[in-house]
Amino acid sequence: MLKPIKQKMMGWHSVKVSPADTVFSRLVRLRDKQCVLCGRKGTGEEGIYGLQASHFYSRRKWAVRYDVDNVWSLCIGCHKKSHQDITEFEDFVLEKLGQKSFNLLTLRAWSKSPLGSAYWKNLTKKQAETIFFPLLGIMER
Ligand SMILES: [Zn+2]
Fold first, then answer.
1. How far is the CA of 107 from the centre of ligand 1 (A)?
2. Hey, which residues does 43 pair with through a beta bridge?
3. Which end of the chain has the lower number of beta carbons within 10 A, N or C?
4. Cα of 106 from ligand 1 centre, angstroms
5. Dihedrals φ, ψ of 16, to 5°?
6. CA of 52 to the centre of ligand 1 (A)
7. How far is the CA of 47 from the centre of ligand 1 (A)?
8. Where on the phi/psi map is residue 35: left (φ > 0), alpha (ψ -120 to 50), or beta?
9. Is the pLDDT reported for residue 138 higher than 60?
10. How far is the CA of 73 from the centre of ligand 1 (A)?
11. What does the pLDDT read at residue 1?
12. At 8, is the pLDDT very low, low, confident or very high (cuts 50, 70, 90)?
């Protein structure tokens, strides 16, 4: 059965959110638990409320839409700022990954997604959790 893609308001822009997006966003925020730029902590029971899983290379680049090197937790303020000026976010990703991994991420970003967007759009929440959650233990950097 195909899952509908919901339209979700993110404050200053709206984005289409699939179950895979929701699950992956939670995973990234559980990894970081704070804004990677200003250090603002997430709140709530899991320490992820008030954080947004932010894509360095655009969500439209499907090959890195669910790539743990491309998606980082930002507070709403830093996320908004990064859309106006990417410099600080870019410096962070470059420093975090190092030049070689940063270059590889860039290569992946400009590649065609091997699975294609339809695959990800049609995943159920359960399927997405099965794929993404095992990553949590191995994605500490
Ligand atoms: Zn911040």
1. 27
2. 49
3. N
4. 23
5. -85, 130
6. 10
7. 14
8. beta
9. yes
10. 9
11. 47
12. low
pTM metric for this prediction: 0.86
- As a whole-number percent, the residues of the chain with pLDDT over 70 amount to 87
pLDDT in tens, 77-121: 999 999 999 999 999 999 999 999 999 999 999 999 888 899 999
Alpha helix (H) ranges present in the chain? 19-32, 76-84, 87-109, 117-121, 125-132
Q: What one-character DSSP code corresponds to residue 76?
A: H
CA proximity to 131, closest of 28, 2, 23: 23
Own/partner long-range contacts of 87-95 (Cβ < 8 Å, ≥24 apart): 88/37, 89/37, 89/54, 89/56, 90/56, 92/36, 92/37, 93/56, 93/69
The residues, any chain, with a CB within 8 Å of residue 101's CB and separated by 6 or more, are 69
Identity of the amino acid at 129 = E
